[in-house]
Amino acid sequence: MSYGDPNNPYGAPQGQPQQPGYGTPQQGQAPGYGYPQAPPVSPYGAGPAAPTTMAGSVSAARAMMWVIVGLQVVGVALMAFAAAALNAAKDDESLQDNTAFQDLVGQSTGVIWGYVVFGLAWLVFGAVLATKFKSGGNSARITILVFAIITAVLGIYPFVIIGLVHTILAILVAVFVGNANGKAWFNRPRY
Length: 191
Fold this sequence. Notes:
Keywords: Membrane, Transmembrane, Transmembrane helix. This protein is an all-alpha fold. It has a domain at about 55-185. Helices cover about 55% and strands about 0% of the residues. The protein has helices at about 55-90, 100-130, 140-155, 165-180, 180-185. Helix 1 runs antiparallel to helix 2 (about 100-130) and helix 3 packs antiparallel against helix 4. The longest helix is centred in the middle third of the chain and has 35 residues, at about 55-90.
């Protein structure tokens, strides 16, 4: 039996073009066999590339943190001035006979000085966190979120009218740091 014989069961089927023999590459096909080659694996996992610049919302959150720090400087200065003025008024001879005023001043100056110390500590903590936007990791992001949430709550309760700006800014910081852009920025690889 010959290859061209139409009755040959091992021959090429009739009416179809012949395929090249074993071992010769076909036209348009890359040499090799098996599964197609996978793309190279990134050591940081698959997914979108890490951001190289800070997103606008994260940059805005950093700016809002500095505004909160500035407002705290003003608030601490005003409370320290108020506590010093109350201490001076307590020692005034014309108010020595007013027992209601003396009771109020005696109890409130300690509380106001406590607010001054707490406000100063919160101010320093906020300034440190504001500097961590550039180099901080996910732990800095979580700390900033907690700071912003506590600041929002403190802006609502003891200082309702004065703390309204603090509350709004702190809520915006928490939203901007907690969104996907904030997560991508703080979780980026640092080489």
